Amino acid sequence: MTLASVASVSVSGPSWSRDFLRTLQAPASDVERVGSHAWLRVEPSRVAAPRADEIVVNDVMFGVEDVDVAHRRAVRAGAADLAPPHWGVLPTPHGERPVRMARVGGIGHVTHTFVERDPAAGDAAFDGAQGLDHLALCLPCHTMDATVARYEAGFGLHVTQTEHIQTRSLGMINTVLQNASGSVKLVLSAPTPTSQTTQLHRFVDVHGGAGIQHLALRVPALLAHSLALERHEVNFAGSMPEMFDAMLARIGHCPVPRDAALALGIMADRDADGLLLQSFLAPSRTAEPVFFFELIERQGARGFGAANIRALFEAVERVQGAPVVAAEPQRQPATV
Fold first, then answer.
1. Given 4, 165, 197, 312, which is the most exposed site by the fewest CB atoms within 10 A?
2. The predicted structure's pLDDT at residue 212
3. Could you give the 3-state DSSP secondary structure of residue 244?
4. Which residues contact 249 (CB under 8 A, 6 or more apart)?
5. Architecture per CATH, 5-320
6. Among the listed residues 79, 74, 76, the one whose alpha carbon sits nearest the alpha carbon of residue 155
């Protein structure tokens, strides 16, 4: 058994979050929609929110072929049994539908719901998150191996890439988990034991443990989508000029004009399969947000912008006057 798809993501947040998510998914009539409103849902949180003014991911719903098999496998691998297989109702873009479902524990307070796909009714109702590129999970130090093992054994995912980035004062480990088709992608990140405080540490401190740090939404045209969001007063974190220049020296060309890229925080990366454009925005009104959305445009690339992570570390280390020692990513045999 393996996960077949991400059916939906449930979040909770302040009163403005519902309108923000609607804008994020369809910012303007001249920009192609990222996905159906049904897949990214705002619901009451099952636990106390770590911050009243920030969006929190509560549950990720996975489409599976057999709920009983999926539930049994996850529980045997150590996942908490929160709701055994039962009949429930699934909201879809075409109305509510009765489905077999179950729920288990994931990481931190995040849960995972299984919904059984019905071939006779068509798969579209269970593939609502077509605009979701990947989910990024933030882990405490020393928990990467155990978490990877649990998702491999309990959810049928496999490692497609690992990366270790280490400088004199900063360090992180990234592991990418996917299903066989590549329709489910989890990017796990954890700080190294010797790393000074990073955004990963702040997330863990605020949430009291592991959680989903950002959702990456795939868009067909990142610049146009970002400009439309900007007209709706969505704020982007700008790029540092030295990072942008280093990126250009590394990949040779960026299709986004320099001024626009710097203002909207758009960065590019290239791998053997093509080009990647990405930017981040923080849907929070706190001074130091810990949850983000990523917008990503893939022009063939399969990676996740690892070179831009290294570039950020290098920029920080140049300010601190420390040399950089960043390992190249290690790719495992992939089936995608």
1. 197
2. 96
3. helix
4. none
5. Roll (3.10)
6. 74
CB 332 within 8 A of CB 161: yes
Domain residue limits, the chain: 5-320
- How far out from the chain centre does Cα 152 lie? 18
The Cα 1–Cα 154 span in angstroms is 9
* Whether the Cβ atoms of residue 256 and residue 277 lie closer than 8 Å to each other: yes
Contact 12, 44 (CB under 8 A): yes
CB atoms within 10 A of CB 120: 4
**CB count in 10 Å sphere of residue 57:** 25
| Burial tier of 153 (Cβ tally within 10 Å: 0-12, 13-18, 19+) | middle
Strands 56-64 and 292-299, sheet pairing = unpaired
Pair 191, 201: CB distance under 8 Å: yes
Contacts 24+ apart (CB under 8 A), 311-317: 311/243, 311/246, 311/247, 311/250, 311/267, 312/243, 313/165, 313/167, 313/170, 314/167, 314/246, 315/240, 315/242, 315/243, 315/246, 316/167, 316/170, 317/167, 317/168, 317/169, 317/170
User: Is there a contact between 58 and 111 (Cβ–Cβ < 8 Å)?
Assistant: yes
Give the model confidence (pLDDT) of 159-204 as tens digits. 999 988 877 788 899 999 999 999 899 999 999 998 888 889 999 9
pLDDT of residue 31: 36
Mean pLDDT, to the nearest integer, of 227-237? 81
The DSSP bridge pattern shows strands 274-281 and 171-178 to be unpaired
* Structure tokens given for 211: 């959680």
Q: Which residues does 133 contact at the CB level (< 8 Å), separation at least 6? A: 185, 216, 217, 218, 294, 296, 298
Q: If you search the block for the tokens 């290098």, which residue do you land on?
A: 314
User: Of 196, 175, 162, 186, which Cα lies nearest the Cα of 327?
Assistant: 162
The whole-number average pLDDT for the span 61-81 is 96
> Could you give the 3-state DSSP secondary structure of residue 89?
strand
Q: What is the pLDDT of residue 228?
A: 86
pLDDT at 85 over 90: yes
